[in-house]
Amino acid sequence: MAISSHLTLVIALAGINIFLLRILKMPPEDVLYFYLFFLFGVILSGSIKMLTYSAVGAGVLGVLGSIAMLYVSLHWRIIGIDISKNALYIHALLLGFGISITLVSGAMATLLDGPLEKASHRSNTMHTIRNYMGAILIACIAWFISRDLQTHLPKTFHSKLEAMKIIHETALNTVHHVFNIMIVFNVIMLIASVVQMFLGKGRRIVAKKTKG
User: Quick one: which of 33, 37, 36, 38 has its CA closest to 9?
Assistant: First the structure.
């Protein structure tokens, strides 16, 4: 869960930044509002995790976050330039909420899945895997975006207007492809969350009893 949500964040930022900055050409203040709503989603997820983690466990929270991200991914898979700013802000809120709640819930489940005295070792292993996979994925996404743009752009254009239109359409198509990849990680997160929910691991933080 934690690894998949981290990789989803990497993909989401790549696709979102291309769409907001290169396709919509949003002014800086609107981009700032987008990421403020993303931050609000993170804060909301933190509040929910704090109040409900011990009661419902990592699996239920992971399912909730995965569904929120899958909703956004499916919309961004077919997104167009006619989307409203309000819809973008709602998507940012859901994305921040979904990624944060799944990432932290998965990390907590890993942390608590076994003897507490070995929790730091499990956490270090998970973070190492997550960071290496994230670094590799960033390079792969950059290569994919560059390759996809080069493949679909014609070698010559009849006019500057035609060139700008084709580049615009190609970039939008590339964004859709990026979010197709994101959907795959969303599904992995959802499956992992459902499995976690039925296994019940990491559901409660229980202090080790000492013999009196």
Answer: 38
pTM exceeds cut of 0.90: no
Q: Is 113 left (phi over 0), alpha (psi -120 to 50) or beta?
A: beta
Q: Are 72 and 89 in contact (CB under 8 A)?
A: no
Distances (CA, A) of 73 to 68, 106, 204, 206: 9, 20, 31, 36
Question: pLDDT (tens digit, 9 = 90+) per residue, 51-99?
Answer: 888 788 788 888 999 999 999 989 888 888 888 899 999 999 999 998 8
Q: What is the DSSP letter of 20?
A: I
- Domain segments of the chain as ranges: 2-195
SS3 133: helix
Distance CA 83, CA 85 (A): 7
Residue whose C-alpha is closest to residue 137's, from 2, 6, 1: 6
The DSSP H or E segment spanning 23 is none
Q: Is 7 exposed, middle or buried (0-12, 13-18, 19+ CB in 10 A)?
A: buried
CATH code: domain 2-195 is 1.20.1250.20
